[in-house]
Amino acid sequence: MGEETLVVVIFGTLHLVGLGLGMVLLLPLLREEHVAPWVPPQEDDDGGGGGNDRVAPDPPRGPSSGGLPLPDAVQTRVRLRSGERLADRRPARDRRPAHPATPSPAPRRVPQR
Question: How far apart are the first and last CA of the chain?
């Protein structure tokens, strides 16, 4: 066999193997499964009223949140209880003094020839 024929046979075999694996992966989609349709629950004669499918919240087991702070808690320096900003409550920082402008050196002149 020539090299070109061998390459064609190898690529053909690879394609057939790929198609076979693709069919194996798609086979579960082609199977027919019998699923029972959904049937609504029977109506009660007493009117029912439905109900709630949510679970009731558990009662708290530990101490409630809030209340007095713990004895070892460190208080903050600024407390914001209203809608104001933190920058409004803290004192403004002192600005650094501006450095005096240093005169720039005069450009040197190059003597002409």
Answer: 87
Instruction: Tell me the residue length of the chain.
Output: 113
In degrees and rounded to multiples of 5, residue 27 shows phi and psi of -60, -40
> What is the torsional sign of CA 64, 67, 73, 77?
positive
pLDDT at 86 over 80: no
Question: Amino acid identity, residue 52?
Answer: N
Residue where the block lists tokens 């690529």 = 11
Q: What is the mean pLDDT of residues 49-63?
A: 72
Helix (H) or strand (E) holding 24: helix 3-30
pLDDT band at 45 (very low <50, low <70, confident <90, very high): low
Domain ranges of the chain: 1-28
